[in-house]
Protein backbone atom coordinates (compact mmCIF):
# COMPACT_ATOMS: atom_id res chain seq x y z
CA UNK A 1 0.00 0.00 0.00
CA UNK A 2 1.33 3.45 -0.88
CA UNK A 3 2.27 5.86 1.93
CA UNK A 4 -0.30 8.36 0.66
CA UNK A 5 -3.09 5.75 0.89
CA UNK A 6 -1.93 4.75 4.37
CA UNK A 7 -1.97 8.39 5.50
CA UNK A 8 -5.43 8.84 4.00
CA UNK A 9 -6.78 5.88 6.00
CA UNK A 10 -4.93 6.94 9.15
CA UNK A 11 -6.36 10.46 8.89
CA UNK A 12 -9.86 8.99 9.21
CA UNK A 13 -9.02 7.75 12.73
CA UNK A 14 -8.46 9.77 15.88
CA UNK A 15 -5.77 9.23 18.52
CA UNK A 16 -8.23 7.43 20.81
CA UNK A 17 -8.93 4.75 18.21
CA UNK A 18 -5.28 4.39 17.23
CA UNK A 19 -4.32 4.08 20.90
CA UNK A 20 -6.93 1.36 21.39
CA UNK A 21 -5.57 -0.54 18.40
CA UNK A 22 -2.04 -0.33 19.80
CA UNK A 23 -3.36 -1.62 23.13
CA UNK A 24 -4.94 -4.65 21.50
CA UNK A 25 -1.65 -5.36 19.69
CA UNK A 26 0.39 -4.69 22.87
CA UNK A 27 2.38 -1.95 21.17
CA UNK A 28 3.64 1.23 22.83
CA UNK A 29 2.84 4.42 20.99
CA UNK A 30 0.54 6.65 23.03
CA UNK A 31 2.28 9.54 24.74
CA UNK A 32 0.99 11.69 27.56
CA UNK A 33 1.48 15.44 27.84
CA UNK A 34 2.17 16.33 24.20
CA UNK A 35 -0.83 18.50 23.44
CA UNK A 36 -1.73 21.22 20.93
CA UNK A 37 -0.05 24.47 21.92
CA UNK A 38 -2.72 26.49 20.15
CA UNK A 39 -6.15 25.44 18.89
CA UNK A 40 -4.49 23.82 15.93
CA UNK A 41 -5.85 21.17 13.57
CA UNK A 42 -5.15 17.46 13.71
CA UNK A 43 -1.98 16.33 11.96
CA UNK A 44 -1.14 12.99 10.37
CA UNK A 45 2.18 12.24 8.69
CA UNK A 46 5.56 10.54 8.62
CA UNK A 47 8.09 11.31 11.34
CA UNK A 48 11.27 13.23 10.63
CA UNK A 49 13.16 12.76 13.89
CA UNK A 50 15.43 15.37 15.48
CA UNK A 51 17.31 15.10 18.76
CA UNK A 52 18.40 18.23 20.61
CA UNK A 53 20.47 18.65 23.76
CA UNK A 54 22.14 21.17 26.01
CA UNK A 55 24.92 23.14 24.33
CA UNK A 56 28.28 22.39 25.97
CA UNK A 57 30.51 25.08 24.42
CA UNK A 58 30.44 28.52 22.81
CA UNK A 59 31.15 27.43 19.24
CA UNK A 60 28.81 29.05 16.72
CA UNK A 61 26.48 26.52 15.05
CA UNK A 62 23.51 26.50 12.70
CA UNK A 63 20.29 27.11 14.57
CA UNK A 64 18.78 23.82 15.67
CA UNK A 65 16.24 22.25 13.25
CA UNK A 66 17.13 24.44 10.29
CA UNK A 67 19.18 21.77 8.43
CA UNK A 68 16.32 19.27 8.81
CA UNK A 69 13.73 21.75 7.56
CA UNK A 70 15.88 22.66 4.56
CA UNK A 71 16.28 18.96 3.66
CA UNK A 72 12.54 18.19 3.45
CA UNK A 73 11.39 17.49 -0.13
CA UNK A 74 7.91 15.94 0.33
CA UNK A 75 4.63 17.19 1.78
CA UNK A 76 3.99 14.30 4.18
CA UNK A 77 6.49 15.04 6.96
CA UNK A 78 5.94 15.79 10.65
CA UNK A 79 8.93 17.02 12.66
CA UNK A 80 9.38 15.04 15.88
CA UNK A 81 11.77 16.69 18.33
CA UNK A 82 13.11 15.05 21.49
CA UNK A 83 15.55 16.12 24.18
CA UNK A 84 13.92 19.42 25.08
CA UNK A 85 14.50 21.11 28.42
CA UNK A 86 11.77 22.61 30.57
CA UNK A 87 11.67 26.38 30.23
CA UNK A 88 13.77 26.52 27.05
CA UNK A 89 12.23 26.74 23.61
CA UNK A 90 12.80 24.23 20.81
CA UNK A 91 10.54 26.10 18.40
CA UNK A 92 9.60 29.60 17.28
CA UNK A 93 7.81 31.62 14.64
CA UNK A 94 10.65 31.83 12.10
CA UNK A 95 11.08 28.06 11.86
CA UNK A 96 7.27 27.75 11.77
CA UNK A 97 7.19 30.02 8.71
CA UNK A 98 10.03 28.08 7.10
CA UNK A 99 8.24 24.78 7.76
CA UNK A 100 5.01 26.10 6.29
CA UNK A 101 6.88 27.08 3.11
CA UNK A 102 8.35 23.55 2.93
CA UNK A 103 4.82 22.07 3.35
CA UNK A 104 5.73 20.26 6.55
CA UNK A 105 2.50 19.14 8.23
CA UNK A 106 3.35 20.05 11.80
CA UNK A 107 5.77 19.67 14.70
CA UNK A 108 5.70 17.45 17.80
CA UNK A 109 8.07 18.61 20.55
CA UNK A 110 8.98 16.68 23.66
CA UNK A 111 9.84 20.09 25.01
CA UNK A 112 8.71 23.71 24.80
CA UNK A 113 7.85 26.30 22.16
CA UNK A 114 7.94 30.08 22.14
CA UNK A 115 6.37 32.64 19.79
CA UNK A 116 3.37 30.34 19.65
CA UNK A 117 1.24 33.16 18.23
CA UNK A 118 3.54 33.19 15.22
CA UNK A 119 2.85 29.50 14.56
CA UNK A 120 -0.86 30.11 14.98
CA UNK A 121 -0.86 33.11 12.65
CA UNK A 122 0.48 31.04 9.77
CA UNK A 123 -1.73 28.06 10.66
CA UNK A 124 1.20 25.80 11.54
CA UNK A 125 0.30 23.01 14.04
CA UNK A 126 2.60 22.65 17.05
CA UNK A 127 2.22 20.04 19.80
CA UNK A 128 4.40 19.92 22.88
CA UNK A 129 4.74 20.07 26.66
CA UNK A 130 4.13 23.80 26.97
CA UNK A 131 5.18 27.30 26.03
CA UNK A 132 7.97 29.60 27.19
CA UNK A 133 9.64 32.83 26.14
CA UNK A 134 13.26 31.64 26.59
CA UNK A 135 15.24 31.18 23.37
CA UNK A 136 17.17 28.02 22.53
CA UNK A 137 20.02 30.09 21.12
CA UNK A 138 23.30 29.27 22.94
CA UNK A 139 21.35 26.90 25.20
CA UNK A 140 20.28 23.97 23.00
CA UNK A 141 21.83 22.45 19.89
CA UNK A 142 20.80 19.83 17.38
CA UNK A 143 22.61 16.58 18.17
CA UNK A 144 21.41 14.41 15.29
CA UNK A 145 18.49 13.72 12.99
CA UNK A 146 16.94 10.70 11.29
CA UNK A 147 17.79 8.46 14.25
CA UNK A 148 15.51 6.74 16.84
CA UNK A 149 14.22 8.97 19.64
CA UNK A 150 12.72 8.42 23.06
CA UNK A 151 9.54 10.52 23.29
CA UNK A 152 7.69 10.24 26.60
CA UNK A 153 8.74 6.61 26.93
CA UNK A 154 7.96 5.69 23.30
CA UNK A 155 10.66 4.86 20.77
CA UNK A 156 10.05 6.79 17.55
CA UNK A 157 11.93 5.95 14.35
CA UNK A 158 12.35 7.98 11.19
CA UNK A 159 9.31 7.33 8.93
CA UNK A 160 7.10 6.04 11.75
CA UNK A 161 3.54 7.31 11.52
CA UNK A 162 2.29 10.20 13.66
CA UNK A 163 -1.25 11.19 14.65
CA UNK A 164 -1.90 14.22 16.88
CA UNK A 165 -5.20 15.83 17.85
CA UNK A 166 -6.89 17.45 20.85
CA UNK A 167 -6.36 14.33 22.99
CA UNK A 168 -2.61 14.18 22.41
CA UNK A 169 -0.04 12.44 20.24
CA UNK A 170 0.42 8.82 19.24
CA UNK A 171 3.13 7.10 17.17
CA UNK A 172 2.74 3.93 15.08
CA UNK A 173 5.75 1.78 14.08
CA UNK A 174 6.03 1.83 10.30
CA UNK A 175 6.41 -1.94 10.08
CA UNK A 176 3.10 -2.47 11.92
CA UNK A 177 1.02 0.28 10.30
CA UNK A 178 -1.23 -1.91 8.15
CA UNK A 179 -2.02 -4.15 11.11
CA UNK A 180 -2.84 -1.13 13.27
CA UNK A 181 -4.95 0.43 10.53
CA UNK A 182 -7.03 -2.70 9.97
CA UNK A 183 -7.72 -3.09 13.68
CA UNK A 184 -8.31 0.64 14.16
CA UNK A 185 -10.90 0.69 11.41
CA UNK A 186 -12.74 -2.23 13.04
CA UNK A 187 -12.66 -0.43 16.39
CA UNK A 188 -13.93 2.77 14.79
CA UNK A 189 -16.76 0.89 13.08
CA UNK A 190 -17.79 -0.83 16.29
CA UNK A 191 -17.63 2.39 18.28
CA UNK A 192 -19.97 4.02 15.74
CA UNK A 193 -22.44 1.16 16.21
CA UNK A 194 -22.18 1.56 19.98
CA UNK A 195 -23.07 5.24 19.66
CA UNK A 196 -26.09 4.26 17.54
CA UNK A 197 -27.23 1.86 20.25
CA UNK A 198 -26.82 4.52 22.94
CA UNK A 199 -28.81 7.02 20.90
CA UNK A 200 -31.54 4.41 20.51
CA UNK A 201 -31.86 4.17 24.28
CA UNK A 202 -30.02 0.95 24.97
CA UNK A 203 -28.38 0.90 28.46
CA UNK A 204 -24.75 1.88 28.21
CA UNK A 205 -23.89 -0.95 30.63
CA UNK A 206 -24.86 -3.37 27.86
CA UNK A 207 -23.41 -1.34 25.01
CA UNK A 208 -19.99 -1.04 26.69
CA UNK A 209 -19.85 -4.52 28.19
CA UNK A 210 -16.37 -6.06 28.06
CA UNK A 211 -17.61 -8.77 25.69
CA UNK A 212 -18.43 -6.08 23.12
CA UNK A 213 -14.87 -4.79 23.19
CA UNK A 214 -13.35 -8.25 23.11
CA UNK A 215 -15.35 -8.96 19.94
CA UNK A 216 -13.21 -6.36 18.19
CA UNK A 217 -10.39 -8.90 18.23
CA UNK A 218 -12.39 -11.05 15.84
CA UNK A 219 -10.80 -11.01 12.42
CA UNK A 220 -13.83 -10.22 10.33
CA UNK A 221 -14.56 -7.75 7.59
CA UNK A 222 -18.28 -7.54 8.34
CA UNK A 223 -19.83 -5.46 11.08
CA UNK A 224 -21.01 -7.30 14.15
CA UNK A 225 -24.76 -6.95 14.42
CA UNK A 226 -26.06 -4.76 17.18
CA UNK A 227 -29.50 -4.34 18.61
CA UNK A 228 -31.14 -0.95 18.52
CA UNK A 229 -33.78 -1.80 21.07
CA UNK A 230 -33.65 -3.65 24.33
CA UNK A 231 -36.20 -4.84 26.82
CA UNK A 232 -33.84 -3.68 29.55
CA UNK A 233 -33.78 -0.05 28.33
CA UNK A 234 -34.60 2.29 31.15
CA UNK A 235 -35.70 5.88 31.29
CA UNK A 236 -33.41 8.21 33.25
CA UNK A 237 -34.09 8.57 36.95
CA UNK A 238 -35.87 11.79 37.79
CA UNK A 239 -34.19 14.27 40.11
CA UNK A 240 -35.45 14.16 43.68
CA UNK A 241 -37.30 17.24 44.94
CA UNK A 242 -34.84 17.70 47.81
CA UNK A 243 -31.91 17.61 45.35
CA UNK A 244 -33.56 20.25 43.20
CA UNK A 245 -34.06 22.47 46.25
CA UNK A 246 -30.44 22.04 47.33
CA UNK A 247 -29.13 22.96 43.88
CA UNK A 248 -31.45 25.97 43.69
CA UNK A 249 -29.55 27.44 46.65
CA UNK A 250 -26.57 27.98 44.31
CA UNK A 251 -28.49 28.96 41.19
CA UNK A 252 -26.94 32.44 41.10
CA UNK A 253 -23.53 31.57 42.52
CA UNK A 254 -20.21 30.82 40.86
CA UNK A 255 -17.20 28.92 42.17
CA UNK A 256 -15.22 31.99 43.37
CA UNK A 257 -17.98 33.17 45.70
CA UNK A 258 -18.71 29.65 46.92
CA UNK A 259 -14.98 29.16 47.51
CA UNK A 260 -14.92 32.35 49.59
CA UNK A 261 -17.88 31.12 51.63
CA UNK A 262 -16.15 27.79 52.24
CA UNK A 263 -13.03 29.63 53.41
CA UNK A 264 -15.03 31.77 55.82
CA UNK A 265 -16.67 28.68 57.29
CA UNK A 266 -13.41 26.73 57.45
CA UNK A 267 -14.57 24.04 55.01
CA UNK A 268 -12.12 22.36 52.65
CA UNK A 269 -14.02 22.13 49.39
CA UNK A 270 -11.86 23.56 46.60
CA UNK A 271 -10.90 20.68 44.28
CA UNK A 272 -7.19 20.85 43.46
CA UNK A 273 -5.77 20.27 39.96
CA UNK A 274 -9.14 19.58 38.28
CA UNK A 275 -10.00 22.16 35.63
CA UNK A 276 -12.68 22.72 32.98
CA UNK A 277 -12.20 21.16 29.58
CA UNK A 278 -13.44 24.40 27.96
CA UNK A 279 -14.16 27.99 28.99
CA UNK A 280 -17.74 27.28 30.04
CA UNK A 281 -20.10 30.26 30.19
CA UNK A 282 -22.56 28.57 32.54
CA UNK A 283 -22.20 27.24 36.06
CA UNK A 284 -22.86 23.53 36.57
CA UNK A 285 -24.60 22.65 39.84
CA UNK A 286 -25.76 19.21 40.92
CA UNK A 287 -25.65 16.51 43.59
CA UNK A 288 -22.61 14.24 43.45
CA UNK A 289 -22.96 10.71 42.15
CA UNK A 290 -19.63 9.30 43.33
CA UNK A 291 -17.58 6.66 41.54
CA UNK A 292 -14.31 5.13 42.69
CA UNK A 293 -11.93 3.41 40.27
CA UNK A 294 -9.24 0.93 41.26
CA UNK A 295 -6.50 -0.91 39.35
CA UNK A 296 -7.91 -3.70 37.20
CA UNK A 297 -8.14 -7.21 38.59
CA UNK A 298 -7.40 -10.41 36.71
CA UNK A 299 -9.74 -10.92 34.92
CA UNK A 300 -10.56 -7.22 34.74
CA UNK A 301 -13.92 -5.88 35.88
CA UNK A 302 -16.34 -3.34 34.43
CA UNK A 303 -15.50 0.28 33.64
CA UNK A 304 -18.87 1.95 33.09
CA UNK A 305 -22.05 0.19 34.22
CA UNK A 306 -22.84 2.82 36.87
CA UNK A 307 -24.11 5.44 34.46
CA UNK A 308 -27.55 3.84 34.08
CA UNK A 309 -28.22 4.53 37.78
CA UNK A 310 -27.49 8.27 37.67
CA UNK A 311 -30.41 10.67 38.02
CA UNK A 312 -31.13 13.67 35.83
CA UNK A 313 -29.22 16.70 37.05
CA UNK A 314 -26.57 14.69 38.92
CA UNK A 315 -22.87 15.44 38.53
CA UNK A 316 -20.70 12.35 38.11
CA UNK A 317 -17.67 12.67 40.41
CA UNK A 318 -14.96 10.12 39.64
CA UNK A 319 -12.01 9.26 41.85
CA UNK A 320 -9.33 7.70 39.68
CA UNK A 321 -6.57 8.61 42.11
CA UNK A 322 -5.34 11.42 39.85
CA UNK A 323 -4.04 8.86 37.35
CA UNK A 324 -2.93 10.32 34.04
CA UNK A 325 -1.87 7.07 32.37
CA UNK A 326 -5.40 5.93 31.40
CA UNK A 327 -8.81 7.48 30.87
CA UNK A 328 -12.17 6.72 32.48
CA UNK A 329 -14.46 8.83 30.27
CA UNK A 330 -14.93 9.04 26.50
CA UNK A 331 -17.36 9.97 23.76
CA UNK A 332 -19.89 7.18 24.35
CA UNK A 333 -20.19 8.17 28.01
CA UNK A 334 -20.49 11.83 26.97
CA UNK A 335 -23.19 11.01 24.43
CA UNK A 336 -25.14 8.88 26.90
CA UNK A 337 -24.80 11.37 29.75
CA UNK A 338 -26.14 14.14 27.53
CA UNK A 339 -29.12 12.05 26.47
CA UNK A 340 -29.95 11.31 30.10
CA UNK A 341 -29.67 14.98 31.19
CA UNK A 342 -26.72 14.35 33.51
CA UNK A 343 -25.41 17.76 34.54
CA UNK A 344 -21.67 17.14 34.09
CA UNK A 345 -18.66 15.08 35.06
CA UNK A 346 -15.73 15.75 37.40
CA UNK A 347 -12.71 13.43 37.16
CA UNK A 348 -9.64 13.23 39.36
CA UNK A 349 -7.88 11.76 36.36
CA UNK A 350 -8.01 12.19 32.59
CA UNK A 351 -10.61 11.96 29.83
CA UNK A 352 -10.51 11.33 26.10
CA UNK A 353 -12.63 11.96 22.98
CA UNK A 354 -12.67 15.60 24.01
CA UNK A 355 -14.01 16.82 20.66
CA UNK A 356 -17.36 15.20 21.44
CA UNK A 357 -17.61 16.90 24.85
CA UNK A 358 -16.54 20.28 23.44
CA UNK A 359 -18.85 20.13 20.45
CA UNK A 360 -21.79 18.95 22.58
CA UNK A 361 -20.99 21.56 25.26
CA UNK A 362 -21.07 18.79 27.86
CA UNK A 363 -19.46 20.10 31.09
CA UNK A 364 -16.34 18.07 31.79
CA UNK A 365 -13.79 18.88 34.50
CA UNK A 366 -10.61 16.82 34.64
CA UNK A 367 -6.93 16.69 35.56
CA UNK A 368 -6.06 16.42 31.87
CA UNK A 369 -6.79 14.67 28.61
CA UNK A 370 -5.21 11.68 26.94
CA UNK A 371 -6.25 9.07 24.41
CA UNK A 372 -5.35 5.75 26.10
CA UNK A 373 -8.27 3.67 27.36
CA UNK A 374 -8.73 2.63 30.97
CA UNK A 375 -10.09 -0.76 29.91
CA UNK A 376 -8.04 -3.58 31.46
CA UNK A 377 -6.15 -0.95 33.45
CA UNK A 378 -8.82 0.21 35.89
CA UNK A 379 -12.27 -0.91 36.95
CA UNK A 380 -15.09 0.43 39.08
CA UNK A 381 -14.32 -0.24 42.73
CA UNK A 382 -17.45 1.32 44.19
CA UNK A 383 -20.27 3.79 43.61
CA UNK A 384 -22.12 6.14 45.92
CA UNK A 385 -19.51 5.93 48.62
CA UNK A 386 -17.13 8.44 50.17
CA UNK A 387 -14.27 9.28 47.78
CA UNK A 388 -11.37 11.71 47.55
CA UNK A 389 -11.08 14.07 44.57
CA UNK A 390 -8.36 16.71 44.28
CA UNK A 391 -7.59 16.68 48.03
CA UNK A 392 -11.30 17.04 48.91
CA UNK A 393 -13.51 14.41 50.53
CA UNK A 394 -16.76 13.96 48.58
CA UNK A 395 -19.80 12.21 50.02
CA UNK A 396 -22.66 10.95 47.85
CA UNK A 397 -25.20 13.76 47.22
CA UNK A 398 -22.84 16.55 48.28
CA UNK A 399 -23.44 19.60 46.10
CA UNK A 400 -21.01 20.19 43.23
CA UNK A 401 -20.53 23.68 41.81
CA UNK A 402 -18.28 23.88 38.73
CA UNK A 403 -17.53 26.51 36.11
CA UNK A 404 -14.70 28.01 34.05
CA UNK A 405 -12.76 28.65 37.29
CA UNK A 406 -12.78 25.05 38.55
CA UNK A 407 -14.75 22.87 40.95
CA UNK A 408 -15.92 23.21 44.55
CA UNK A 409 -17.71 20.66 46.73
CA UNK A 410 -20.26 21.79 49.31
CA UNK A 411 -21.03 19.27 52.10
CA UNK A 412 -24.73 18.54 51.81
CA UNK A 413 -25.43 19.07 55.50
CA UNK A 414 -23.94 22.57 55.33
CA UNK A 415 -25.36 23.64 51.97
CA UNK A 416 -27.84 26.15 53.43
CA UNK A 417 -25.12 27.72 55.58
CA UNK A 418 -22.64 27.98 52.70
CA UNK A 419 -25.25 29.41 50.36
CA UNK A 420 -26.23 32.09 52.89
CA UNK A 421 -22.63 33.19 53.39
CA UNK A 422 -22.04 33.15 49.62
CA UNK A 423 -25.05 35.42 49.07
CA UNK A 424 -23.76 37.85 51.71
CA UNK A 425 -20.30 37.96 50.12
CA UNK A 426 -21.74 38.45 46.66
CA UNK A 427 -23.98 41.28 47.86
CA UNK A 428 -21.04 43.01 49.57
CA UNK A 429 -18.95 42.78 46.41
CA UNK A 430 -21.87 44.14 44.38
CA UNK A 431 -22.12 47.07 46.78
CA UNK A 432 -18.39 47.75 46.41
CA UNK A 433 -18.72 47.75 42.64
CA UNK A 434 -21.60 50.23 42.92
CA UNK A 435 -19.56 52.54 45.14
CA UNK A 436 -16.66 52.44 42.70
CA UNK A 437 -19.00 53.22 39.80
CA UNK A 438 -20.23 56.20 41.81
CA UNK A 439 -16.73 57.61 42.11
CA UNK A 440 -15.41 56.15 45.37
CA UNK A 441 -11.82 54.93 45.49
CA UNK A 442 -11.40 51.18 45.65
CA UNK A 443 -9.60 51.51 48.99
CA UNK A 444 -12.45 53.49 50.56
CA UNK A 445 -15.12 51.22 49.10
CA UNK A 446 -13.41 48.09 50.37
CA UNK A 447 -12.76 49.57 53.79
CA UNK A 448 -16.31 50.81 54.29
CA UNK A 449 -17.81 47.43 53.48
CA UNK A 450 -15.22 45.22 55.17
CA UNK A 451 -13.91 43.64 51.96
CA UNK A 452 -10.71 42.35 53.56
CA UNK A 453 -12.66 40.27 56.09
CA UNK A 454 -15.17 38.76 53.67
CA UNK A 455 -13.37 35.42 53.36
CA UNK A 456 -11.71 35.45 56.76
CA UNK A 457 -12.55 32.43 58.89
CA UNK A 458 -14.83 33.33 61.75
UniProtKB/TrEMBL annotation:
Native source species: Penicillium argentinense
Top-rank lineage group of the source organism: Eukaryota
Cofactor: Mg(2+)
Protein known as: RraA-like protein
Spans through the membrane: none
Annotated positions binding Mg(2+): 353
Record's keyword terms, sorted: Magnesium, Metal-binding
UniProt-listed SUPFAM superfamilies: RraA-like
Residues that bind substrate: 330-333, 352
InterPro entries given in the database record: RraA/RraA-like, RraA/RraA-like_sf
One of the record's GO molecular function terms: metal ion binding
Region of interest (Disordered), ranges: 218-238
Record-linked PANTHER family: 4-HYDROXY-4-METHYL-2-OXOGLUTARATE ALDOLASE 3-RELATED (PTHR33254)
Segments of skewed composition (Polar residues): 218-234
